[in-house]
Amino acid sequence: MSESFYDLLGVNRNATAPEIKQAYRKKAAQHHPDVSNDPNAEEKFKNIKRAKDVLTDPSLRKTYDQVGHSQFEQAQKQGGFSNTHFSGDPSDFFTNANFSTSGFGNLFETFFGGSSRSTPRRGKTLATSLEIDLEDAYSGVTKTIRFTRPESCTKCNGTGHPSDAKTTNCSTCNGAGTVTRTSSTLFGQIQQVTTCPTCNGERVSYSKKCNSCSGSGTSINKTEIPFQVPPGVLDGTTFLYEGEGAALKNGTNGDLKVTISIKPHSEFKREGSHIYYSCELPFQNAVFGTKVSVPTIGGSSELTIPPGTQSGDIFTLSGSGMPQQGRKKSFGDQIVKVQIPTPHPSSLTSEQKKVLKSFEKSTETSAKSGIFDKLKEL
């Protein structure tokens, strides 16, 4: 892929993280394999997602801008970029020495409490639901999700303090960013190193807090994002939107989980990719047979009713059901159950009553044979 990540998303090199995410959502909705007919849609979607992942990660984006697209791609194929400095944090030694595959990573985690790799803290994963109609689940649709989440404070840019605030070493950790606890075990005394609870690993304290977010670095805001519902989505399906969850001071955004809820339909019942429909048929049509237009979730279809059809008989309209999620041009069936209602005498005209009386006299009836059995013999 020779096209730069910026060109791929259609943004300029000075685009902010929110602008990049917005561009990604538009591109993803356009090239998602479930909605695009482009045979290369899946590959394009992967490239778009990768571009977003790199450009919304401050460290990776800085490296990408410094070395350029070609060198970045080449380095990623050879194992990616890694930091080589030692900051004084004991975990840096294990990270930079690349002992994670030899068992030292797990050993470090056991004795020092935490991962051997220095990973940024993440905000909380949020969850919301989206209610749609069965018709929307059939065709796929773009909906707007509205929810409330903690976002980076715009006044202090998520730092929690004004730019002119003075700093002093954290009094709890003395500027180390971590605190050490010693506990006694069967193996002797073990020290556990954890992030300082006072400065949250920043190593310093600030003389002033942001008067907008009170030092939290975040503010609660209402937001909305477009969501592409794929055709054939099942009720209860949960989608994960990376980086659309809660913001966190000195960390990365959490994720957003969106669960689909499909409203019950007045005519159709869905089971997987199949649709069930009950069709009422006048008894004379059941006797002599006919052709009827049956509504389907995608429109309508003609159904041939053979002579002598009984109430409760089942017919199948192949391919008239729901799309199978993730499988293009693959549909379930519509199952049609015929119901033949018995008319109430009060709904019959005098002429209709005379015809039925005449029919009754001309046929032999018994407790074991009903009117439809006799009609089949005509």
Structure, briefly:
With 378 residues, the protein is α+β, with helices and mostly antiparallel strands.
Give a written overview of the molecule.
With 378 residues, this protein is α+β, with helices and mostly antiparallel strands. 27% of the residues lie in helices and 26% in strands. The protein has helices at 5-9, 17-31, 41-55, 58-67, 69-77, 90-96, 104-112, 134-139, 283-288, 350-362, 371-377; strands spanning 126-132, 141-152, 167-169, 178-185, 188-195, 204-206, 218-229, 238-241, 256-262, 269-271, 274-280, 290-296, 299-305, 314-317, 334-339. It has a 4-stranded mixed β-sheet with strand order 10-11-15-14, with no helix packed on it. Strands 1-9-8 form a 3-stranded mixed β-sheet. Strands 2-7 form a two-stranded antiparallel sheet. The termini are far apart.
Topology of helices and strands:
Layout: H1 5-9, H2 17-31, H3 41-55, H4 58-67, H5 69-77, H6 90-96, H7 104-112, E1 126-132, H8 134-139, E2 141-152, E3 167-169, E4 178-185, E5 188-195, E6 204-206, E7 218-229, E8 238-241, E9 256-262, E10 269-271, E11 274-280, H9 283-288, E12 290-296, E13 299-305, E14 314-317, E15 334-339, H10 350-362, H11 371-377
Parallel strand pairs: 1-9, 11-15
Antiparallel strand pairs: 2-7, 3-6, 4-5, 8-9, 10-11, 12-13, 14-15
